[in-house]
Design goal:
Helix content is 37%, strand content 17%. The protein is built from eight helices and six strands. Strand 2, helix 3 (56-65) and strand 3 form a beta-alpha-beta unit. The radius of gyration is 17 Å and the shape is globular. The two termini are 20 Å apart.
Amino acid sequence: MRLFLVRHGQTEANLSGVFCGMTDVELTETGINQARQVARYLSAVTFSQAMSSTLRRACHTAEIILADHSLSVSIDAQLNEMHFGAWEMRHHRDLQHEDAQAWADWLADWQQASPTGGETFPTFAARIEHVVQQLLIQESQDNLLLVAHQGVLGLLLARLLAMPPAAMWHFHFEQGAYSVVEIQHGFTTLRTFNNRIDWLLEIRK
């Protein structure tokens, strides 16, 4: 199976640098254009399946990519970004003063602490791990599109490559680009990361 990983396009939350997990924000005009760019890069790819989180910024990105394909996106809540609770749409500069203890706990051990009223990392990691295990057992030769969020994609790729969860920070998914992994017999190969050329040109290299 060939898995195409795409981060949603730009949002105002991205521009503001605030925590945005389950807040359902829209794409900016730049974000829409980024999705259109990815659609052009992947225009020659025949997808057998497309998956997206339930959040509008991911769904909209997937819909734009699939606009010229006879395929609808399947919505999966497991692909939602981590829920940041009371930290949603807040900047870390404010949190370190207004929620100082929780912020200090997060900095000291982000894998065990949780945002105030938010999702714990173990809970988030468990649902992404379920997606990973489902992908690893697929034996098809099909192309699958998966559109989600930075935290989701970083953790997903780390675990597909049999790396520990903390390795998710090594993978920064750029907006307006796509990455590809191939999964065969439970083994994952990273073919390209943050690519910005047509896929057919990439495979002819």
